[in-house]
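Example 3.2
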Amino acid sequence: MQHDFILLDRSGSMQSLWIEALSSVNAYVAKLAEDKVDTGVTLATFDGHNGKLAFEIVRDRIIPSTWAKVTDADAQPRGMTPLNDAVGRIVAIADAGNYDKLAIIIMTDGHENASQELSVKDAKALLDKCRAKNWQVIFLGANFDNATQATSYGNAVAATADLSVKNLSATMRATAESRAAYAVTGAAMRFTTEQKERLRAS
């Protein structure tokens, strides 16, 4: 059994690129449907609201071909970026399922700045356990070079990309192509250097 978890930062700084970010999520799922990847998709948003983690499941275990496009009516940017705590929550949900192949895609435009429960070390340990199962963890920086942050969470350079706003959807489609290969062969989801250069171009 397979599943895809998309963890989307909805902190206030995402406001200027929010529509593009949502469109990129839709593009990812559309590509999964096009490639007939046998998976379910869960979209969760997170921010720090009123001093606490606000973690909301926007789409829950949806078959790609039946996906209802997510829009700004589903969620709006606000608050801070409690990335560690959000990672803890999404991994807990993933662990509760009986998944053979699984992808966690994390999109953010800034650094962790508001977690109350978990440290970077804690979050890394959780993601390390995911990677040990050959689950895929992808970090995407939206208008943000997140290589250093992603490395601190244990992510390989090839599983991390920073991208311009105009290339959000193209990046997510490229990610979905890699996901389709992982579904069939188990090959790790990766970005080539050429892909990353193209996707970060402004």
